[in-house]
Write a structure and sequence with these properties.
The protein is of the alpha/beta class. The protein has 14 helices and 15 strands. The protein has a seven-stranded parallel beta sheet, with helices on both faces. A six-stranded parallel beta sheet has the order 12-11-10-13-14-15, with helices on both faces. A hairpin with a 7-residue loop joins strand 4 (57-59) and strand 5. The longest helix is centred in the N-terminal third of the chain and has 16 residues, at 16-31.
């Protein structure tokens, strides 16, 4: 059995798609006999090995680290050489069309994963007409796939509203051994030369307009001492203030987990997340969340694990930050950790994914996948 993932969203400097694909690869390598290959134009040459295949690509202007395949043909030829039994596609551009050519010529089942809320992002940047065009394009592409996976119920509803009926809900997961409270470093404030009573907020991810980081910076500035915001990642240039510390992207997830778990609260101001994997990672580290009520974030955060505020408002973020520090942070963090471990550990999520794959495959392949997922054949 050979599963292949192909996507342009595999930048070296992280992102939720890369985390998901790497976690899936590690799980399959340790617990199954299934061969798994990740194909992307965004892979660096140094990463190339038997399980990760780089294809020729062109940089995307304004988006650091992501590359488009040089052509549909070059991506198709790479897929054809791999002879996969099933392909999952992580974006709706050139990679999707290469996979659709494989489906047409070799009758290979195709799964699309709706990682990026493209129509919302395009609408925010270019207006309603562009958003309508993006919806039409997504409907045209995704209706050709056997199944489309969406990580939140909100995204499932959004895809249904586009006229797609082949959509299934499949949340992402988290490595609860890597992301755990035990990685907390009590010396972080001293290392940053901050007072011991500093209230540390943290954001981790890309620095891009849709993340609304200017709102987060302004919210913390308005609050003043003892609040301080740590921003981990890379991307667009952001304002430097006395109440912000910038830390470059952490490629080692254990170092990222150490930083997150050493803070008090995760702050996530974005409003167009399809899921919000970093929120789940922070919850696994035992951190409460302050996020917005828009996008997929609201499905991860409840009043037991954090506070949701209206989007696009620095004042609302400030109020949410103040409010969360009036709660029992320890209990809220314990609640967050419990939910992450019981509902979103990869040992729970990957078997769910294999069940969905199994439904698309021929009988003998389906039995093999179900066995790998620990499922009795024929069970619901």
């Amino acid at each position: 059995m050979h599963l292949v993932d192909i996507t342009m969203f595999y930048a070296t400097e992280g992102g939720g798609v890369r985390s998901y694909l790497n976690a899936k690869a590690r799980w399959l390598a340790r617990r199954s006999r299934i061969e798994h290959t990740i194909v992307s134009p965004s892979i660096r040459a140094a990463e190339h090995d038997q399980a990760v295949l780089a294809i020729p690509g062109l940089p995307i202007p304004g988006i650091r680290g992501y590359r488009l395949p040089l052509s549909i043909g070059s991506a198709y030829r790479a897929l054809e050489r791999l002879q996969p039994d099933l392909i999952e596609v992580g974006d709706a551009s050139t990679c999707a069309w290469a996979a659709l050519r494989m489906k047409r010529r070799h009758h290979i089942p195709l799964v699309a994963f709706y990682h990026s809320d493209m129509q919302h992002l395009i609408g925010c940047r270019f207006g309603s007409l562009a958003q309508q065009a993006a919806q039409a394009y997504l409907r045209h592409v995704y209706q050709k796939f056997d199944m489309v996976l969406a990580p939140s119920n909100l995204m499932v509803q959004q895809l249904h509203a586009m006229g797609l009926n082949n959509v299934r809900h499949q949340p992402l997961g988290v490595d609860t051994w890597v992301f755990c409270p035990q990685r907390r470093d009590a010396t972080l404030r001293a290392q940053l030369r901050l007072p011991p009573n500093t209230r540390l907020l943290v954001y981790a991810g890309r620095f891009s307009p849709e993340k609304k980081l200017l709102l987060a910076i302004e919210a913390v500035r308005k609050l003043g001492k003892p609040y301080h915001l740590i921003l981990i990642g890379s991307g667009e240039e952001l304002p430097r203030t006395r109440q912000t510390t910038y830390i470059p992207f952490m490629r080692d997830p254990r170092l990222l987990a150490q930083l997150i778990s050493s803070c008090d609260v995760l702050l996530h101001p974005g409003d167009c997340e399809t899921f919000g994997l970093v929120i789940l990672e922070a919850m696994a580290c035992g951190l409460p969340i302050v996020g917005t009520s828009a996008g997929g974030v609201g499905e991860l955060v409840s009043e037991q694990t954090g506070i949701l505020v209206p989007p696009n408002s620095a004042a609302s973020l400030s109020e949410g930050i103040e409010a969360v520090f009036r709660t029992d942070l320890v209990q809220m963090g314990n609640n967050a950790r419990q939910i992450a471990t019981s509902q979103y550990a990869w040992d729970r999520i990957v078997p769910q994914l294999l069940r969905l794959y199994a439904g698309l495959l021929a009988t003998n392949q389906r039995e093999e996948l179900e066995a790998e997922a620990g499922i009795a054949y024929g069970a619901k």
